[in-house]
Specification:
Elements: E1 6-11, H1 15-26, E2 31-35, H2 41-46, H3 48-67, H4 81-105, E3 108-112, E4 115-119, E5 122-125, E6 128-137, E7 141-143, H5 157-160, E8 169-173, H6 177-188, E9 192-196, H7 208-220, E10 224-226, E11 231-237, E12 240-245, E13 252-254, E14 257-259, E15 263-265, E16 298-300, H8 311-326, E17 340-342, E18 348-352, H9 355-361, E19 364-371, H10 374-379, E20 385-392, E21 398-404, H11 408-420, H12 425-430
Parallel strand pairs: 1-2, 1-6, 2-3, 6-16, 8-9, 8-14, 9-10
Antiparallel strand pairs: 4-5, 5-6, 7-15, 11-12, 12-13, 17-18, 18-21, 19-20, 20-21
């Protein structure tokens, strides 16, 4: 068996950990993966997948309403929330079975329990010790909440996915993508939603036009967004909760409070620092370009490193790790032009630089289009689409694409390939559009936005 029990032990059976370990196992390494919860991790079990299923379900409310404009006679539609949650759970159980089978098929030993590093080559799981030449940290992230009075009464996205029944009113604290997505879900199924954000607008870090357009569309759907607002305390009473807002005398009453104020690396309390691994101030494992920590035998991928906290990135990092150390194919992840999506209502898709980022790098041209989608001309819905291209003025390369509107994530995925290939605006213009689609707008935009419209400086 050699010096160690395994060639690789991975902590965390999420997307990145499973990809790295099953590839290493497939390449002939003796591998084990340790998981204290459900196999599949945050994305599959308490994040992307169940959330997207709820997004689909919630959107039917608008689809039923819009169908009348297309001649359909619709009776009263009613959502059976417990049935939805039960069906969602059945799908997660199916997916967990798929993940377990993938591990078995690649000779990965699954060890279920809580893991802690005893030294740079040893992991202890519920009193049992296992040794490995390499240890991979893939423990993901966990919701982070402020330390205020009454915070123990709130739910996070974890609990929101399993609510036994819907509240009449909910306050969602946070302005990031998780908060925005759940605001859309709850609003669409009939819950009165108030979103509280500390900043002046939602989705910090996204393009300013994306932020403004999405916020306006959300407010048209009757989601109330309270900007520049801070919750000081939360009090539970017999029929709900009271929130004390900084600078306001009146209490804010609601039936449920959800916090989506960010996530932190899930790395504390598992022996990393004691083993000599350097963590940053957020608890992220500090790694080099090969995913190696400050300890020779310990590596990390995914949200535990707090680099780019997206599931496909964790998967890419897991693959790069396995290829480099178990297949003799040194591989590094390219972090440029990573596309992302927000499954809000309407959804967002983005790839490349924001306008502000492009402006700080040099001269650029901006093309922007806003229109009502064809579907809504008969459906009657007051919802607009925004599409935006940012072009490097010096070489004509498209360096940013952003969209708010139906199918934005699907459309931007294709655009991301073009940006990865270094496509120019001239090549976009030379591409024949598919008509009638919203996507064709990306290859028909000809008019530059006047510079004074956005006070862009160099842009």
């Amino acid at each position: 068996m050699g010096r160690y029990d395994f060639d690789l032990i991975t902590l965390g059976a999420g997307s990145g950990g499973v990809r790295a370990t099953r590839l290493a196992g497939g390449y002939g390494a003796r591998t084990a993966i340790i998981e204290k919860s459900r196999v599949g991790g945050t994305c599959v079990m308490r994040g992307c997948v169940p959330k997207k299923l709820l997004v689909y379900a919630a959107h039917f409310a608008e689809d039923f309403e819009d169908a009348r404009g297309f001649g359909w006679s619709m009776g009263p539609a009613q959502l059976d929330w417990p049935a939805l949650i039960a069906n969602k759970e059945a799908e997660l159980e199916r997916l967990e079975g798929v993940y377990r089978r993938i591990l078995r098929d690649n000779t990965v030993r699954l060890i279920e329990g809580s893991a802690r590093l005893a030294d740079p080559h040893t992991v202890e799981v519920d009193g049992q010790r296992y040794t490995a030449e390499k240890i991979l940290i893939a423990t993901g992230g966990w919701p982070s909440m402020p330390s205020i009075a009454g915070i123990e009464h709130v739910i996070t996205s974890n609990e929101a996915l399993d609510l036994p029944e819907l509240p009449r009113r909910i306050v969602i604290v946070g302005g990031g993508y998780i908060a925005v997505e759940f605001a859309g879900i709850f609003n669409a199924v009939g819950v009165q939603v108030m979103q509280i954000i500390r900043a002046g607008n939602i989705l910090r870090g996204f393009d300013e036009d994306v932020r403004e357009v999405l916020a306006a569309e959300m407010e048209k759907k009757s989601i109330r967004v309270m900007r520049d607002t801070v919750v000081r305390s939360i009090e539970k009473h017999s029929d709900g909760y009271s929130l004390r807002i900084d600078g306001q005398d009146d209490l804010l009453e609601t039936d449920l409070v959800m916090y989506a104020t960010g996530r932190l690396p899930n790395t504390r309390g598992i022996g990393l620092e004691e083993a000599g691994v350097t963590l940053d101030d957020k608890g992220a494992v500090v790694v080099d370009e090969w995913n190696r920590s400050t300890v020779e035998s310990i590596f990390a991928v995914g949200d535990a490193t707090d680099r780019v906290n997206l599931t496909p990135v964790a998967i890419a990092e897991g693959r790069a790790f396995a290829e480099t150390f178990f297949h003799n194919t040194p591989t590094r992840v390219d972090y440029d032009n990573i596309p992302s999506a927000v499954f809000s209502q309407p959804p967002v898709g983005s790839v490349g630089l924001t306008e502000d980022e492009a402006r700080h790098r040099g001269s650029c041209d901006v093309y922007l289009s806003r229109f009502k989608p064809m579907k809504h001309t008969l459906g009657g819905r007051d919802e607009n689409t925004m599409m935006k291209l940012i072009v490097d003025r010096e070489n004509d390369r498209v360096i940013g694409c952003h969209m708010v509107g139906a199918d934005a994530p699907e459309i931007i995925q294709g655009i991301a390939i073009a940006l990865k290939c270094g496509a120019t605006k001239a090549q976009f213009d030379a591409t024949v559009g598919i008509h009638p689609t919203a996507a064709e707008e990306f290859v028909t935009m000809r008019d530059k936005r006047p510079e004074h419209d956005a006070d862009l400086g160099k842009c």
